[in-house]
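Incident review: delayed structure delivery

Summary: a single-chain prediction request sat in the queue longer than the usual turnaround. Root cause was a stuck worker, restarted by the on-call engineer. No data loss occurred. The affected request and its eventual output are reproduced below so the record is complete for anyone auditing the incident later.

Affected input:
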Amino acid sequence: MRTLRLLPALLTLPATLALADTIKLKSGETLEGRIVQFDPTGLTIEVQYSPTIVEQRFIPKADIASSSVASSDEAAYAAI
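Output delivered after worker restart:
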C-alpha cells in the first residue's frame, strides 16, 4: 500500500529532472541543475544532490562538451 502512494511522486521525478539545465563535460560527466552565472571563461551551475545539499560549481569553458538550457516557461511549469 505504501508503494502505491509513492508511485505518483516517483513518476513525476524524471519529468522535473529533464527540465533542468544540463552540462556535458569532455570527461564524460553530466551535470544537471540550474545555471546561475555565465562568464567569458566558463559558467557556474547549481547542482542539488539532495533536499539539503546544494553545490555551486564553476566549469571552465574548455571543459564543456555541450550544454542545454531549459526555457523559463519549462522551468516555471516544472515548479507547479
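Verification: The longest strand covers residues 30-39.
Action items: add queue-age alerting; document worker restart procedure.
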